[in-house]
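Table S5 (text form). Sequence records supplied for joint modeling of the two-component complex.
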Amino acid sequence: MTKIRTGLAAGGTVLALAVGVTVAGAVTGPPRGNQDPVTTRGPDQDPLLRGIAIAQESLRKNPANYKLWAELALGYVRQATSTNDPSFYAKAEGAAQRSLELDTKNNFLGYAALAAVRNGRHDFRGALRAADSGLKIASFNATLYGARGDALTQLGRYAEATAAIERMNQLQPGLPAFTRASYVLELRGDVAGARAALERSLELAASPADKAFVQQFLGELAIRYGGGAQKALEHYDAGLKAQPGYPPLLAARGKANAALGRIEAAKADYTRAGAALPTPGLVLEYANFLESLRDPAAAAQYELFGVQAKLYEAAGVALEVEGTLFEAERGDPKKALELAAEGWRIRPFVEMADAYAWAFYANRRYAEALVWSKRAFVSGWRPALALYHRGMIQNALGDKRAARADLSAALKQDPMFDALGAQRAAQVLQTL
Amino acid sequence: MSKVTRSFCLLVLVILAIGGSASPAHAHPLGNATVNHYDGLVLTRDAVIDNAVSDIAEIPTFQRRSTVDSDRDGTISPAEASKYAERRCADMAKTLELTVNGRKSDFVVERSGYQEQPGSAGLPVSRLECRLSAKADLSAAAAVKFRNDWDDDGIGWHEITAVAEDLALVNSPLPAESISDELRQYPSDLLASPLAVREGTMQTRPEGDSTYSRVDDLPVAGFAARKLNALSREFNETVGQRDLTIGVGLLGLLLSISLGAGHAMLPGHGKTIMAAYLVGRRGSLRDVLAVGVTVTITHTAGVLLLGVAITTTAAFAPASAERYLGIVSGLIVAGVGLALLVEAVRRRSSGRLLGHGHHHGHSHDHDHGHEHVHEDGHEHGDDHDHSSAVQPHSHGPSDRAFSRRGLIGLGVAGGLVPSPSALLVLLAAAALGRTAFGVLLVLGYGLGMAGALSVAGLLLVKLRGRLERLADNPRLAKAQRLVAVLPVLTALLVLLVGTLLTVRAVGGAV
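The corresponding structure-token record, covering 942 residues in total, follows.
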């Protein structure tokens, strides 16, 4: 028995180490602190894969070890984000549930795993409940505070989210805590603080995957808040040097190249990223870029987005922000409002409020649009896209001064925030 | 907030929902953005065939549709499908990497096909099938390396299987059967990760050309061999545990002994059977012990020496050592055969006719046959040996001296080529810092081998009495005459086996 337990402990430790690097949090919510790209392929070199394999093997012999089930679930969540292979979420959910079937009294790790999976599935309320159940058992656990913070962020409870992330940073300062802190700071409008937190993360990033991950968000902070596309490009290139071919970085570099007027380079990056991981956001962004160039290839990308939307609908899942924006811009404005309402129910978050405002704008309900647009700024967050939306709404309401201020601020801050939006903003500014 | 990041999350979500909800029947189980690959390798004496399949989920199918639908009429005609398949398979053939003994070999397309099938949300998924073949000379032992990196930008399942026709696969890390039914049904075990197998290296050997190292090959036919393989795995796991208690240690030792015994029983142990035969012939307990001790000492010493050689010199190749040991082993058997021949001829010429000749190979078969069901013809020769062996008991001093030497010689031959599994056990134990335990295990392994041989020998001793009585039956007189020449035949067979073993070992197939 002793040897079995030791074997399990060994497996568990490996996995815990691997999971500990970036404790899986809200996988789909905040962009930082949740995604940790590891596209390493051999189980021999990748501690995460090795840990998962050991845990699987140990659990086959001793399926009653609830801790190991929980660690395996966290490992699967991390693998889903790191390999961009979503089939791991179903496994993660199954493993987390198995863990909690075996023990609910002491099983704080089981709750952490469940919270991570629920965050991943946009069940933020469920994730919050799971994290809090875990915290009742282990009030010192950083992973649980991370999951709680992720859920609270997406539920629009920013002050509480900040408190949870602060607690996480006290308990276990490290990459997962710093990247989450950076995100919370960005949402509060503290771009300098967000950048500082990411720079600290970069110092801690040991693996190529971690480096790529942090560089991606350093780049995005730069390009979105007046740091310039050139600066962003440097971060993306550094990230791609660490982790070649990582699709989110390729897509981000495509946008930076587009902003710098390097059309062919941008197309190449978008195409590569799209072949590897055609996410709806990427497809829509690329489609808008092609459309801004009057490139007929845009049609195929919009069609592809339609295909994705169809798949989402068939699955009974709202496309939330992207779906709302697409319907508002090019589809059915009525449907945009429906999607926005549904999205807000799931995710009462600033970005969703901004999309909601744009849905009202598309329906020419400008007063309501302005109310929702203001909600997009409550946390202090002010990205160019939201400024552009607010500027357009104010213009429609006849407030030319406010419109001019917002539109020029948007273009100054991030000249290519959206290829089509930027063109339109410039056109409208000339009329003001 | 990054759109791309977020939309990935949404993609994940929809895929989860499709996978999780009960209604959509055709949802792709691995997510509708995946491109999944399977290679079913078939190794023959002159070629490597790859029955390759790509299972392409809804989104990539849609993304690629414009290149399939060349006339842009919105439908895929059979001509468009076959043209596309040809092009894709040719592209795949170019990308696949195959080396045989380090030399690159190119695949050519033999057959190709592309087909759309209904997926979720009324969208199609698609399946590309390519039959590729590459020339490869596998008529002699060869090392084959395969790698598939084709169409590997995105996410997906990667699976390779390998089977051989008229060949034996050695140390193949690839399974023979597809666990996904060639990408038709993906397993959903919580404790199994999606496959990510992109390459495999294996050795091949012409079929039937192997002796004892066959023991480690999984595809040994027969119930007993399968059991033994299962036992080996259990053993490796037990001994490989990080923590060792007395209980586990004893269990490991016990398993080691049974493995040794099983090893001795497995096909290919012609030498040991011969030793058993000689034991049966001589019949004393001391002879039985002599064989047992010889086998144990030789085997243990051999494994230990090999182990030391491997751990101390990086350049040491166990395969070549096995080869030399195989040669020595074969030569010893041949030598014993020669000595037997000389003895038999001398006896015949000195007019010593048989007192009893017996026709009882049949009964012997029954007693012994189950232990080496898959023995080749040579070992069946041993059966006849045995029948002839139950002979008059002329125990002249020189006769006895030879037999004792012969026995020890065969014992040495039986134990000389270390069983690879025993060697592995030793190295594994040493790697875990438990060299002494490893030595103990190897000793146990040798004891197990020796025990099995001794039991076989003792059985023969018991049998002998009965057979002699049977042979006294006058109705078997004719058979007796036949039996008279059997010692010579026996000796010739032993000599032949020894020679064959030597030749094979020289040829590299131990």
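Note: Chain A is about 75% helix and 0% strand.
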